[in-house]
Amino acid sequence: MFTLILLPGITYACDSTPTVAFVSYQDMDNGNYIVEIEVCIGIVGSENGWSTTFDGFNVVSFSPSGFIGSGGNIAIGSANGNVLSYEYSGTGFPDVFVAENELPCYYYMIELDGDISFTTVDVDGVNCNMDNCPGSCATISDSLSVVAKLPPLPPDCGENFYDYGGDTGDYLNDEYTKTIICPDSPGYQTTITFTAFDTEECCDSLKVYNGTNIDAPFIAGYAGTIIPPSVTSSNPEGCLTFEFSSDGSFSSSGWEALMTCLETSTNNISETDNIQVFPNPGHDKIQIKGVEYTSLHIVDKSGKIWRMIKDYRSEIDITDLPDGIYFIEMRIEEESIIKKIVVRN
Known about the structure:
Layout: E1 2-6, E2 11-14, E3 19-27, E4 33-40, E5 46-54, E6 59-63, E7 66-68, E8 74-80, E9 83-87, E10 105-112, E11 119-125, E12 137-140, E13 144-148, E14 160-162, E15 176-181, E16 188-198, E17 205-209, E18 218-222, E19 231-232, E20 240-245, E21 254-263, H1 266-269, E22 276-283, E23 285-289, E24 295-300, E25 305-309, E26 315-317, E27 324-332, E28 335-343
Parallel strand pairs: 1-11
Antiparallel strand pairs: 1-13, 2-12, 3-4, 4-10, 5-9, 5-11, 6-10, 7-8, 8-9, 14-21, 15-20, 16-19, 16-21, 17-18, 17-20, 22-23, 23-26, 24-25, 24-27, 27-28
């Protein structure tokens, strides 16, 4: 669990305040984590940008290097130990990073060198009062805490698969999560066997797809308290994608399931044996040989799409992909071929 704390200081917020949200994270398997955070600037705007302070570990890298605000004003990113700042200090017009009423949101990725614990985010709002701010204003004099619990990582073979609340908590209201589950080694299929299930029947549903994203063939959708049947993949890489969404009125204990991996026959995977993706692990660029696909997607383990390519290319630039595990889905007419790669820059 980590906490994002909004510290606007003595300022005024009109109609909506700056918000900070946890988006996703990846375990890098080397003691580091990649965390994605979203900052949305409220109606009052932002004078100087924001900074993020991490308790107990340092910022290894971050992206992007800066953000564009009002009038082309740029907030430049800089890391110093456990602090990452995006600050505007120019004299452009208007003389603020984000002017009132623009309501932009910014996403940034941070690599951290230890276990995730607590995060503090400062957002400087533009001071205003009842005379120069639109709508009704409310003074913010105390810190506002936004709690974001880390979702469980996708399980490995033989491990349990839980909803966002884990084995002891409930899932969230207004939640939307995607989880890609794949076997540890090629030549296996994933089976998910549910042992407990409890969601709001009308409005909170778990959907399952036979592949690495929600464009893969739909298998089934589940809601309520009846334990679903086991689900097994039937695609070359043996992956399943789970998509869960909830409304804002009610949450429950979610689900518990066991992931098992079954070896497939050689015939089921022989058609992909001659397809090569290299180097793997890769950085900067990767090569694809043995197939002329008609479209290609690169997605991470959280389901985020990093590349959408509509024509065949034998070489793909991956310089902006953070370190981690990715899935390359190549479409050939109605068929789909999936390869797993590791990015290490």
